[in-house]
Amino acid sequence: MQNKLALVRASAVVVLVAASSPGLAQGRNVFEQTCAACHLGGVGGAPSIHDRQTWRVRLRQGEAVLVQHALDGHGAMPPRGGNAMLSDAQVRAAVRYMISRAMAAQRGTP
Ligand code: HEC
Q: How confident is the model at residue 95 (pLDDT cuts 50, 70, 90)?
């Protein structure tokens, strides 16, 4: 019984890891095709993925709010980054990818 439980736990971890990596890969694709134009270099006040501090401040609203702003548009940012073909899941994946890139960036690097 104990062994069986351990096995179930181990496979659950495998599933979780497998589920998160394709999400980031999908987010990267969406980012590169739609969001990078503004968010790579911080065009027009867009938070750059190289600027961890900016993202930390924005993250205080919670990830769900950031995703909602990306879907609806926010300030100078067009809804879905101007690509109406993107699904909610694709936009969410792109936001998560940007957050993970920003958190890995050196503080203050342009
Ligand atoms: C045309 C330029 C442009 C494109 C393309 C673009 N953004 Fe933005 N984005 C902006 C600007 C400008 C802001 C800052 C808006 C503000 O805070 O006033 C922003 C802000 C954001 C924020 C932070 C919102 C908040 O509440 O602080 C998120 C998340 C975001 N964009 C996600 C995305 C995603 C995901 C994509 C691609 C699907 C994308 N953006 C494409 C210009 C762009």
A: very high
- Name the closest-CA residue to atom 2, ligand 1: 38
Residue whose structure tokens are 């067009």: 78
Q: Which residues line ligand 1 (CB under 6 A)?
A: 30, 34-35, 37-39, 44-47, 58, 61, 66, 69-70, 74-78, 80-82, 86, 91, 94-95
Residue 17's pLDDT is what? 47
Q: What is the rounded distance in angstroms from the CA atom of residue 40 to the CA atom of residue 61?
A: 22
Instruction: Give all domains of the chain, ordered by start, each with its CATH number.
Output: 2-104 (1.10.760.10)
Contact 51, 84 (CB under 8 A): no
